[in-house]
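Continuing from the previous page...

OK, I double-checked the sequence for alcohol dehydrogenase against my notes and this is the correct one:
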Amino acid sequence: MAIPETQKALVFETPGGPIQFKDRPVPKPGPNELLLKMKYSGVCHSDLHAWKGDWARQASMPLVGGHEGVGQVVAMGSNVQGWKIGDYAGVKWLYSTCQHCDYCQDGDDPCCLDQQVSGYTHDGSFQQYAVADAIQAPKIPKGVDLASVAPILCAGVSVYAALQSSGRKAGEWICVSGAGGGLGSLAVQYAKAMGFRVVGVDCGEEKEAFVQELGVDAYVDAAKEKNVAATVKSVTGGGAHAVLNVSTATSAMQDSLDFIRPRGTVVLLGVPGGESNLSVNVHDTVAFCYSVKGSAVGNRKQTQEAIELFGRGLIKCPIKIIGMRQLRQVFELMEERKIMGRYVLDLSY
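Thanks. Re-ran it with the corrected sequence; updated C-alpha cells here:
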C-alpha cells in the first residue's frame, strides 16, 4: 500500500508546553523494525506525566507521546521475521530492551536497564505512522475491536502482571484501590477473570455504579466511609489478601497499607507525579508478615496473555473514542481525577 512522505502527529515540544498538532515525516523502519499505519491509541496517565515532565527522568523532547497504539504493518526492515504486511501489531510502553541482560533472559523485560520506552524516550503512538520493534511489538489477533484492544497494551497488561505478582490464588480477595479509573476498571475485570473476589475502593456513586457493572463483589466509597480500612476488612472477613493500588494519589497508597490481612500483599502500580514516599510501620510489617512491592508493565508473554483474555471476551474495555486534537482535554480530566474507563484517540485524521 502507498506510504505517504508526511503525516499528522501530536508533539510535546517542552515540558508542560503546547501540544503541537503538526506535520512530520513518516518514519522509515530500521532493520529490526515494523512500520505501522496507526489506527487508535489509548491515553494513559503516564502520557500526562511525560508531557508535564513530572518524573525525575525527563522525557526526550521534542517527543511524540503515546504507548497504547494499534496499527497495521505496511513495511518492515530486512531482518524482521515472523511478520507479514497486513498484520496488526501494537506499540506498547516497552519499545525495546537489550535482550541480553539477566532481566531480559529471565523474562523480566520491564527491569532491563537498557530499555527504550515508547512515548517517553522514543516517539510513540500519537501519530498516523509509527515504528515498532519487531521483537517487542505484540501481535493483535484478527477480528478484535482495534479501538478497545488499544488500552490493553499498557493498562491491561500492567494490571494483569500486577495481579500475577501478588502471588494470590483464585477465590481470595483482591482490593482494587482506584477501581473506577482507566487502570482500575481493567484491574477489576482481570481479577474476576482470574477467579478472585474483588472489592473496589473509589469515590462517588457514579463510580460505584460503573464498577458494579464490571463485576465487583463489593464497593467501598472512600468519600463517604469514615474508616475505609475497617469497612474493607469487614467486607473481606479480615482484610484483603492483596491490594492492587492503581491510584496516583499518595494518600490512597498510604491508606491501602491498612486494607490487608496478615501475610497480605500491597502491590503498587500507579505512579504519582514528583517524588513521593510511604510510611511503613515496621513492627506491624514484621509481626503480620506484610509485603509491599512494586509492579511495572508486563513482559512479552504477559502481554500476549492479557490480549488473549480480551480476545476471548472476558475483558470489556470501557472506552470513549475522541479525535487527536482533544488530547489536552483528556489530560485536564486526568488532573481533575474525573476519568472513568479509558479515552482512545482515533488516528485516522
